[in-house]
Amino acid sequence: MVGSIAVTPEQLKSQARVYQQAATQIEETIRKVNLMNQQIAQEWKGKAFQAYLSQYNQLEGNVKQMTRLFESIHGQLNSYANTVAERDRQDARSFGL
């Protein structure tokens, strides 16, 4: 038995927007933290700051990877929403609508 699709293109696009918004928020947070790091670097010197900065720089790459994943999911959901909408139009044409 084939499963049915019970999601609308609008629902998919709404979910896609959530992923894009999350990616945007993460990017904004990275910018804020980078700015804070630049500011604090003027006052915090020494090995402790270098250790902190090294750890942050390593983790920043992982966070950016998550942003790319969210953007990818956003695109996939939008693409699938368009596919679902097109299939619905084709089905309607099959019935002369």
Describe what you observe in this structure:
InterPro entries: ESAT-6-like_sf, T7SS_ESAT-6-like. The chain has 97 residues and is mainly alpha-helical. Helices cover 84% and strands 0% of the residues. The protein has helices at residues 9-41, 47-94. It is rod-shaped and about 75 Å long. The relative contact order is 0.16. The model has no long low-confidence stretch (mean pLDDT 93).
Annotate the secondary structure layout.
Elements: H1 9-41, H2 47-94
Helix pairs in contact: 1-2
CATH superfamily: ESAT-6-like
Total domain units: 1
Number of strands: 0
Strand content: under 5%
- Separation of the first and last Cα atoms: 27 Å
How do the SSEs run, as a string of H and E?
HH
Which term fits the overall shape? rod-shaped
Helix- and strand-based class? mainly alpha
Helical element count?
2
For the record, the CATH architecture stands as Orthogonal Bundle
| Uncertain regions spanning at least 5 consecutive residues | none
User: Any idea of the CATH topology?
Assistant: Helix Hairpins
Per CATH, the class reads: Mainly Alpha
Largest β-sheet summary? none
Rg is 22 Å
As a percent range, the share of helical residues equals over 70%
What's the rounded overall pLDDT mean? 93
Protein name: ESAT-6-like protein
Pfam family, one: WXG100
InterPro entries: ESAT-6-like_sf, T7SS_ESAT-6-like
Family: Belongs to the WXG100 family.
